[in-house]
Inverse folding.
């Protein structure tokens, strides 16, 4: 599950307890990916907003995409055609410096999911009582 | 999944076992108000009553005659009854004991929590729930500090509320949520408010209604501390309800039994503070973005209980977007903790309603 607020995206992987945050540029990329934009469309949109060579932006965005893919947060190729109209926030009058997007990963909550491992059942069909006496 | 995973039939048959248990062990009922809602607890016999209602006894009488949620609570051993078998297989259990694939339309939510060996079933249409354990002795003592939490959590989503992992302090005209990881200082901050003008709403878990402004609601009167805090700043040792606890167990007290005048049942949320301990003596506030608040509040809220969902995250984001956020750098002076919060509430403009 994911949500973006004040240009910061929070992504929570409910199955494994890992969660992530994306900085403002990472959030811009993420939001466009969620809309179904292609890499080329994202690079084009960022290039007109940031005072940086398109090749540099493309490398940084591709790196982020690879990280998201490696974390199983996105699946490549679901929208190969892209969108006809990708929405972007207002550009503003001045082009800003592009900073490579950062994906922060946190694993400190994973233990919350270990409290209830899959358990064996007894002959009544209900999970066996724990034996540690806690 | 078993041969007939009909949740409606299972709920009905399990309910019949409860009625049988109540006929044998006796009827006991408690009702209380949770904001505008009426929550009714029906017990079969006394075995689970004290450990279930003690943390809830600060709540007021129900505001209406018709319950908004009825929970049937029983165990098999003390009532000499046999629970019907589950109509699902072992393969249906997911994270936190959530039973998956039982019900296509989402009417019935089923969780079997192994750590307290308890079955929780909620019927979202009838607003009826079941809480069953084989034996009351299997429920860990610490559960008395947050009884029926899973059922309240599952039910809250359908009522426009979230059971948030947060401490909360304030005054009737407004208060703050204190969010952060375990050990960040949420409980310390809440307990530090006891000798101050601030009132205590929660040390770990409270309801938040996504209104304008958001509203926090007290659920438990529980306060917890480790041995370091006992008698030093938290509460006196004489208030502790679990004196024979293990070395890893926190001391628990039920504040309404000792300091009922310090409890706050609800208040508008005026700010959300991300708690973080620092080495300096004095505590201080610095502005935080809504995104930072969401990152501090959402993961532990969504991951500590079953059935975390996109809807819950959206609600948390909506709440975080409506009130200002701050980093609360928690200094070493416990006495100094309430002062920045009091100052914030004195100067933070009231949010439009």
């Amino acid at each position: 599950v994911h949500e973006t607020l004040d240009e910061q995206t929070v992504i929570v992987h409910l199955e494994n307890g890992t969660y992530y945050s994306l900085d403002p540029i990472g959030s811009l990329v993420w939001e466009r990916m969620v809309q179904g934009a292609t890499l080329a469309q994202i690079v084009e949109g960022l290039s007109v907003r940031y005072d940086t060579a398109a090749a540099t932006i493309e490398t940084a965005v591709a790196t982020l995409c690879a990280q998201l893919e490696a974390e199983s947060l996105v699946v490549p190729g679901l929208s190969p055609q892209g969108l006809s109209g990708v929405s972007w926030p207002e550009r503003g009058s001045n082009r800003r410096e592009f900073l490579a997007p950062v994906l922060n990963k946190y694993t400190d909550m994973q233990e919350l999911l270990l409290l209830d491992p899959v358990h064996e059942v007894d002959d009544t069909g209900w999970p066996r009582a724990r034996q540690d006496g806690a | 999944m078993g041969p007939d995973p009909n949740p409606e039939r299972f709920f009905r048959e399990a309910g019949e076992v409860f009625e049988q248990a109540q006929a044998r062990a006796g009827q006991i009922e408690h009702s209380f108000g949770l904001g505008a809602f009426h929550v009714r607890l029906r017990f079969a016999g006394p075995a689970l009553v004290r450990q279930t209602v003690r943390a809830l006894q600060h709540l007021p009488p129900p505001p209406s005659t018709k319950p908004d949620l009825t929970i049937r609570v029983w165990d098999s051993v003390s009532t000499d009854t046999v629970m019907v078998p589950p109509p699902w297989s072992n393969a249906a259990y997911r994270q936190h004991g959530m039973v998956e694939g039982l019900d296509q339309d989402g009417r019935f939510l089923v969780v079997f929590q192994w750590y307290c060996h308890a079955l929780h079933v909620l019927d979202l249409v009838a607003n009826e729930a079941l809480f069953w354990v084989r034996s009351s002795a299997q429920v860990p003592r610490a559960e008395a500090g947050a009884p029926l939490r899973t059922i309240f959590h599952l039910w809250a989503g359908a009522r426009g509320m979230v059971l948030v992992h947060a401490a909360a302090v304030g005054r009737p005209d407004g208060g703050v949520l204190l969010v952060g990881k375990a050990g960040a200082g949420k409980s310390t901050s809440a307990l530090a408010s006891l000798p101050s003008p601030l009132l205590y709403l929660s040390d770990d878990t409270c309801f938040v209604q996504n209104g304008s402004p958001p509203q926090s609601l007290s659920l438990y009167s529980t306060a917890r501390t480790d041995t370091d805090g006992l008698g030093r700043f938290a509460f006196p040792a004489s208030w502790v309800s679990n004196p024979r606890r293990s070395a890893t167990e926190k001391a628990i007290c039920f504040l309404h039994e000792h300091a009922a005048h310090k409890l706050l049942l609800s208040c508008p949320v005026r700010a959300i503070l991300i708690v973080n301990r620092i080495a300096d003596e004095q505590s201080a506030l610095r502005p935080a973005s809504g995104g930072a608040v969401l990152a501090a509040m959402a993961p532990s809220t969504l991951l500590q209980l079953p059935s975390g969902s996109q809807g819950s995250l959206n609600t948390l984001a909506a709440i975080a977007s409506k009130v200002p956020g701050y980093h609360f750098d928690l200094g070493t002076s416990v006495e100094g903790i309430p002062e920045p919060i009091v100052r914030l509430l004195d100067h933070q403009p009231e949010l439009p309603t």
Notes: The radius of gyration of chain B is 20 Å. The longest strand of chain B covers residues 266-277. Chain B touches chain A at residues 82-83, 85-86, 90, 93, 95-97, 112-115, 117, 119, 134-135, 138, 140, 181, 289-295, 298-300, 302-304, 308-310, 312-314, 316-317, 320-321 (CB under 8 Å). The mean pLDDT of chain B is 91.
